[in-house]
Specification:
The chain contains 1 helix and 11 strands. The chain is mostly beta strands. β9 and β10 form a beta hairpin.
Length: 212
């Protein structure tokens, strides 16, 4: 099974240039998460990430620290702080972002629905100022019986609270694979669709997590 997962990831990566030729913008995001659970209901994680754009050229580097608290199985709170460096257009200019999340989750048989609300400061890097945003996201995940691979879809809106307008949406479709023990990997397709004349961005994402 592990060989199949590696083969599927390779197919995604090798097909990226072909997909890029059909779209105005195509990116690849690679994320590593190192997570430690403590005191039963708390978790702390550090997540470095690199984002590639246009023929796999480095576009942005990020590192994020996150603390979460889960008082109940259906409810979780989290706070995060991120430092990102935009390297493609502005020459190593740093941005700083905070985020506060509330997660509500419920299982329906083998389906799990999660509603997340996020309050954050945010910009699309092309903007000089970071505005305040509210970002609601609905995610549906399905647990396949006898298989450690769970497909999922999610939809997120980016509402600019400063300018009182919805700027874009984010659609994800992919799968999460448990590799045994503390290891987990996710592969997904993501589309950023702007509610302006700005071109959509198509993204291949690979997310690996190590839980201590």
């Amino acid at each position: 099974m592990m060989r199949r997962v590696i083969l599927l990831i390779a197919i995604f990566v090798l097909s990226a240039p072909a997909a890029q030729a059909k779209t105005e913008k195509f990116g690849t995001w690679i994320e590593l998460e190192f997570r430690k659970d403590f005191l039963k209901r708390f978790a702390f994680s550090v997540t470095p990430e690199i984002r590639l754009q246009d023929q796999f050229k480095p576009d942005e580097y990020l590192v994020q620290a996150k603390l979460s608290y889960e008082p109940f199985s259906f409810l979780k709170f989290a706070g995060a702080y991120r430092i990102s460096t935009e390297v493609k257009d502005k020459g190593n200019e740093n941005y700083y972002r905070y985020a506060f999340d509330t997660h509500l989750g419920h299982e329906f048989g083998r389906f799990e629905a999660t509603l997340r609300g996020r309050f954050t400061n945010y910009s699309d890097m092309s903007e000089e100022e970071q505005d305040n945003y509210f970002r609601p996201r609905l995610k549906m995940e399905y647990n396949i019986k006898g298989i450690k691979t769970d497909p999922f879809v999610s939809y997120e809106l980016f509402q600019n609270l400063t300018k009182n307008e919805i700027r874009k949406s984010r659609l994800d479709a992919g799968f999460t694979r448990k590799l045994g023990g503390p290891h987990r990997i996710s592969v997904y397709y993501r589309m950023h669709d702007y509610f302006t004349d700005k071109a959509s961005i198509h993204i291949l994402g690979i997310d690996y997590r190590l839980k201590f």
